[in-house]
Every structure is written in C-alpha cells, then in structure tokens.
Amino acid sequence: NLVDNEIDTGISQIFNHDPGCSIDEFKSGALKAFEIILYAFAKKDKETLDSLLSKDVFDAFVGSINERDAAAELLETKILRVEISKINNVGVKGSLASISLEFISDQINLISSQDGKLIDGDPDCIENYKDQWTFQKNLNHKDPNWELASTKSLS
C-alpha cells in the first residue's frame, strides 16, 4: 500500500534523527498529551496549554476559554477511554517533522453555570469522538517534546 509506505518512510526519517525514540514511545506520549491537553483546556490551565500547543492552536484554545469566561460557564471533561486508531500522515519538510494521529475517545463533557446549574451535556451520556491531531517538532532542536499543531474533528 502506497500510503503505508509513505508513512513508514516518514517515520524512519523522523526517528533516524532521534534514535532514542520510537513510534511506540511517540504514540504513548501522544495519548498522555491528549488527556493532559483536554483536561488543561477544561480547567483553563493556559500555562500547561502554552507548553504543549503551537501558537495558532494555543490562540484558538485561549479564545474558547475566554468565551467560556465571558459567558460565566465552566467545562467539566471526563475521558473514559482514548486510543489511537491509526496514523493518518507523517511528513518531514526541511527540519520540521509532523505526525497526524486519529484518536477515538469516549468522553462526558458538561457545561455549567458558575452556580453549578447544568447548561449543556448529560452526566449519564457518554459521547464518542473521533479526532485528528497533528503534532510537530523541529528535528534540529534538542527539545524532545512535540507540540500540537492542529486539531480536526472527524466525528
């Protein structure tokens, strides 16, 4: 399969730059990042988000957080299950590497007012989400961490 060959070639290019890391370690880190980022978003933890997101994604997340604040709304997120269903794309352009993953997750998301009144969501309703998240990293930098460069709902 041509797509699988392109993905394998891209993975080889990326991890040849960093032989101490593997695609399995990357996927494990991406799963942790998925949860950390969603919980930080719900808690309005801009410091954590800033360390994990590209500037464009950070600005979009902060915009949503500010809208929530202006509406005096709170978001509570519970992730019940998350898995990576597949690698959608791998690329290297110059020194910038990117890996797009498809996440499938079961979540409960509740929006409530400051006084605790439920505005949206159902605590007994588990929603299934399918998202594509693209992580990127400059291969010339010593920092081993990847940042979230884009998100897209596939649901």
Describe this structure in words.
By secondary structure, the chain is an alpha+beta fold. The protein has four helices and five strands, in the order ααααβββββ. It has helices spanning 2-17, 23-43, 46-52, 55-70; strands spanning 73-93, 96-113, 118-120, 127-138, 147-153. Strands 1, 2, 3, 4 and 5 form a five-stranded antiparallel β-sheet that branches. A hairpin with a 2-residue loop joins strand 1 (73-93) and strand 2. Helix 3 runs antiparallel to helix 4. The radius of gyration is 17 Å and the shape is elongated. The mean pLDDT is 93.
Give me the number of helical elements: 4
Percent of residues in beta strands? 35-45%
| Major sheet details | 5 strands, antiparallel
Q: What is the number of beta strands? A: 5
Shape: elongated
- Rounded average pLDDT: 93
Rg over CA atoms, rounded to whole Å, is 17 Å
Structural class: alpha+beta
End-to-end distance: 25 Å
What's the SSE blueprint?
Elements: H1 2-17, H2 23-43, H3 46-52, H4 55-70, E1 73-93, E2 96-113, E3 118-120, E4 127-138, E5 147-153
Antiparallel strand pairs: 1-2, 2-3, 2-4, 4-5
Briefly characterize the structure.
This protein has four helices and five strands; from the N terminus they run ααααβββββ. It has 155 residues and is an alpha+beta fold.
